[in-house]
Design goal:
Shape: globular
Radius of gyration: 23 Å
Distance between the termini: 35 Å
Bound molecules: flavin-adenine dinucleotide
Length: 499
């Protein structure tokens, strides 16, 4: 059978709509460098050969570029945030819109290819790029359209968090995003999403009113509480398991664009008392007060405790709300002031530099109890490297006001995450840093219950991945078997349909 005939019949067998290849679009696509066949890898790890004619048909049908190894732009496109991953997909489809995503899924299905989906490229696990498969790259899809009257933002599947803030804030509107502006909205939203205003408004996934999704069987569907409600449930916390989100609609909330925020810095000697006092105080804190404690190494080898603050209730209440936290110790640094909210949202962008080499372990905890505090202090004191952190991003407030089974995000009741992370630039430091984090983590992990799907690592065994979904796992498994029985979307905190 001719290769092209096989493709068409395989597509028909899968129920994928026959599609005329619009060669007219070829003029705006990046031309592949040569007409050779392409070696690729399937989802189950087999080597296959993609015939040049099929690849050319695929390319001609795309509005965006199709890149293969050696093509101009290929190396930039395969690069993601975490410099630990230097992977080479057989093909990268730089999708310009939902039709390109649909086309890419159909091509991957027809050839059984391993698929990696790239939104903002910030997966700590590196799973948005793969060796030998098809990387479906949404990064050209960064549109944000605000409807101020209906208080909604329509956001492309490859948009970054800063795109959302920068487009919504000028309209006096905000939604929940994360704390580093170059993180992708796609991955963050599908896994849950928490940040500075989450205690007030809920998780990022709680803001969704609908999502346009390309499913594994090659259809573009809308998921909302009215349409495909089962899928909508799974997309809010179930990660990238169920399809590729081409567009999200988020609820927006009135916001004047300002907040009271910044950092209180304490030397390590005060950290035990400050964290103990903090744990007591913060349990009763107002929903508008977000404080993330961070134990960190500092230049020169010192260790410090930072309280990273964003107060978003009426500014006249800030002084009284923050005074008890200032009194927990004698801060050696205090940058807390009334500032544009976007200033807080970008203050970590440089530290979390793109291309650094990162390794992170994480889990949820309900309290910062005394034993956990002691364990964290010992851990940070033992860090052999210039850049190590234990961050404790908070939840609570509106996040826990939503029932655990109302969306796929289960771990709403834990007040904190504990994230142990290292970063370095020189690959020669990887072994020491990763080795140290791995050796320390079991002590901290003993205090945790489950972990955030968005901090999943490939090294976490499949049966442990279910801890990320807690009591929602069985329902997610049933949904996966309905929407992706062949596990096309497997490079994520995977709900394996064969489990
Ligand atoms: P990508 O690497 O592009 O994608 C990760 C996975 O998400 C992919 O493998 C795919 O399965 C899926 N995916 C992405 N986009 C889509 C899409 N459109 N459709 C279907 N699947 C998709 N999390 C928080 O909640 N709050 C924070 O404040 C926060 N801060 C962070 C700061 C940094 C510096 C980093 C590195 C991470 C942070 N995270 C935070 C974690 C973050 O939620 C995850 O790293 C998330 O995966 C990033 O999404 P992305 O689109 O950039 O990732």
């Amino acid at each position: 059978m001719q290769r092209r005939t096989f493709c068409a019949s395989a597509a028909a067998a899968l129920g994928i709509a026959a599609w005329p290849f619009p060669r007219a679009y070829a003029a705006v696509s990046t031309i592949a460098d040569d007409a050779d066949d392409v070696e690729a890898v399937t989802g189950d790890g087999r080597q296959v050969l993609l015939h040049a004619a099929d690849v050319e048909d695929f390319r001609a049908g795309l509005r965006g570029a199709l890149l293969k190894q050696g093509a101009t732009g290929y190396d930039d496109a395969r690069r993601i945030y975490n410099g630990m991953f230097d992977r080479r997909p057989a093909l990268i489809a730089r999708c310009a819109g939902a039709a390109d995503v649909l086309r890419s899924v159909q091509f991957a299905r027809a050839h059984g290819l391993l698929v990696a989906v790239r939104g903002g490229g910030h997966s700590l696990s590196g799973q948005s790029v793969c060796d030998g498969g098809l990387m479906i790259d949404l990064s050209p899809m960064r549109f944000v359209r605000v409807d101020p009257g209906r208080r909604l933002a329509y956001v492309g599947g490859g948009a970054l968090l800063g795109d959302i803030d920068r487009e919504t804030l000028p309209f006096g509107l905000v939604t929940t995003t994360g704390t580093v502006s170059h993180t992708g909205a796609g991955g963050l939203t599908l896994g849950g999403g928490f940040g500075r205003v989450a205690r007030r408004y809920g998780l990022t996934c709680d803001q969704l009113t609908s999502v346009d999704v390309v499913t594994a069987d090659g259809r573009l569907v809308e998921a909302s509480s009215e349409q495909n409600a089962d899928l909508f449930w799974g997309l809010r916390g179930g990660g990238g398991n169920f399809g590729i989100a081409t567009s999200f609609a988020y609820r927006l909330h009135p916001w004047d664009g300002w907040a009271v925020g910044g950092r209180l810095v304490f030397p390590l000697e005060q950290a035990r008392d400050v964290l103990r006092g903090f744990d007591e105080l913060y349990e009763r804190a107002a929903d508008g007060l977000w404080i993330e404690p961070v134990l960190s190494t500092a230049p020169g080898g010192a260790r410090i405790l930072m309280l990273d603050i964003c107060y978003c209730d009426a500014p006249e209440g800030a002084e009284a709300a923050l005074a008890p936290y200032r009194r927990l110790g004698r801060p050696v640094g205090d940058t807390v002031a009334r500032v544009p909210y976007v200033q807080l949202q970008t203050q970590d962008d440089e530290r979390a530099r793109i291309g650094g080499r990162y390794y992170t372990k994480s889990g949820f905890v309900s309290r910062l109890d005394d034993d956990l505090i002691d364990a964290m202090l010992e851990t940070i004191a033992s860090a052999p490297v210039p850049m190590a952190r234990i961050a404790m991003p908070p939840k609570g407030g509106a996040i826990e006001g939503v029932a655990r089974d109302a969306t796929a995000f289960w771990h709403r009741k834990s007040l904190y995450s504990v994230l142990l992370g290292t970063s370095n630039d020189d690959p020669a430091d990887d072994a020491a840093n990763v080795g140290w984090a791995r050796s320390q983590w079991p002590t901290l992990e003993a205090f945790t219950e489950g972990f955030y799907a968005n901090t999943n690592l490939s090294e976490i065994a499949g049966d442990r991945v279910r801890d990320a979904y807690g009591g929602n796992y069985d329902r997610l498994l049933a949904l996966k078997r309905t929407y992706d029985p062949d596990n096309l979307f497997r490079l994520n905190a995977n709900v394996d349909p064969r489990a």
